[in-house]
Design goal:
Layout: H1 2-6, E1 9-16, E2 28-35, H2 38-50, E3 55-58, E4 64-66, E5 71-77, E6 84-87, E7 92-96, H3 101-110, E8 113-114, H4 126-132, E9 135-136, E10 139-140, E11 145-152, E12 158-162, E13 168-169, E14 172-173, E15 181-189, E16 191-192, H5 195-212, H6 232-238, E17 245-246, E18 249-251, E19 259-261, H7 267-285, E20 294-296
Parallel strand pairs: 2-5, 3-5, 4-20
Antiparallel strand pairs: 1-2, 6-7, 7-15, 8-16, 9-10, 11-12, 11-15, 13-14, 17-18, 18-19
The structure holds flavin-adenine dinucleotide.
Length: 299
């Protein structure tokens, strides 16, 4: 099986997931698989299915809470599928799922296209960002998507989904939780703009993030979605949870909706602290916060 797999992908065995997620937590995976192209991805999942090996698609691991239990399957990363094509004359951009969002932002700004500046500080891939409808500053990725290309995990067919057929809302899409599709690429529709104005927006957003977010520590960004008309961070702060720690994980003093890996936190530290924050906010304010990050491998 391994020899066959290696014809289509870079394959590593018994890899620690620690450096493949932005919390820097998590246990081993039996296989770490990076298919060489879209066709190789299709072959890869056919081989895994034939051998009854479960698999999970990981982007940059910036929105997941990985368990410390060994994953007895294959973590698939799309890092070899990171092509970008920019057509400024048509305001169109094509990006494969493995492209890092900040790289796409810089490339489009460089070509005089505007729209994606909001995402310069989102350290995820295009695949992960489409999956969760990543956004910031009242914009989200779906505002700029023309269509996406996905691989149906059951039929192995590639399907094109037009913008109007994608169901999404704030930090949520039809892809979330279901894992029926692998997002392969996205087409964006942008506007032509002034490069200097885009750079001014980028600088402003960077300053605001540096001022408000604990970027000096590993984290996975906001833990909870903002409830309608309120902010998760405000509620957590109002419950006096800033600075609360379990093991090496801590509720950030700088931004209450961030949990940081302050001192060699384990997966369990992060997991328990998220639950403590959730339950305390529920008890004290009756608001049932919805987690934005995804627990992977905890069942
Ligand atoms: C410092 C910091 C700041 C952040 N700021 C923001 C912010 O402003 N706004 C925001 O929305 N988020 C923010 N995030 C969270 C995170 O960066 C985004 O949610 C990002 O879009 C996740 O992408 P990823 O590639 O890391 O996904 P991962 O965390 O790797 O995966 C998340 C989910 O997406 C699925 N997935 C990944 N790729 C694919 C694919 N190709 N096909 C199908 N499913 C896939 C995974 O299976 C998993 O279920 C921040 C995180 C950090 C650490």
């Amino acid at each position: 099986m391994l020899e066959e797999l290696k014809r289509h992908a870079d394959v590593l065995e018994n890899v620690s997931l620690n450096k493949y997620n932005t919390y820097h937590i998590g246990g081993l995976t039996k296989y770490m698989v990076s298919p060489l192209s879209i066709n190789d991805l299709i072959e890869t999942i056919k081989i895994l299915d034939k051998n009854k090996i479960p698999y999970f698609i990981l982007g940059n691991g910036s929105n997941v809470v990985l368990s410390s239990k060994k994953y007895e399957g294959a973590i698939i990363r799309l890092n070899n599928m990171a092509g970008i094509a920019i057509h400024p004359e048509m305001n169109m951009v094509y990006a494969e799922a493995g492209v890092m969002f900040p790289k796409l932002v810089m490339d489009t700004v460089d070509k005089g296209l505007t729209g994606l500046e909001f995402a310069a500080g989102i350290p995820g891939t295009i695949g992960g960002s489409v999956y969760g409808n990543a956004g910031a500053y009242n914009s989200c990725i779906m505002d700029y998507i023309d269509s996406i290309s996905v691989l149906n995990r059951e039929t192995y067919e590639i399907e094109e989904i037009e913008h109007e057929d994608i169901e999404y809302s704030y930090r949520n899409t039809m892809f979330k939780g279901e894992h029926k599709y692998i997002i392969l690429s996205a087409k964006f529709f942008l506007k032509s703009g002034e490069k200097s104005s885009s750079i001014a927006i980028l600088e402003d957003r960077k300053r605001r993030r540096l001022e408000s977010q604990p970027l000096e520590f590993p984290s996975a960004g906001s833990v909870f979605r903002n409830p309608e008309g309120d902010f998760a961070g405000r509620l957590i702060e109002a419950c006096n949870l800033k600075g609360t720690a379990i093991g090496g994980a801590e509720v950030s003093e700088k931004h209450a909706n961030f949990i940081i890996n302050k001192n060699n936190a384990t997966s369990e530290d992060v997991y328990e602290l998220i639950n403590l924050v959730h339950d305390t906010v529920l008890e004290k304010t009756t608001v049932d916060l919805i987690i934005e990050q995804e627990f992977i491998g905890w069942d």
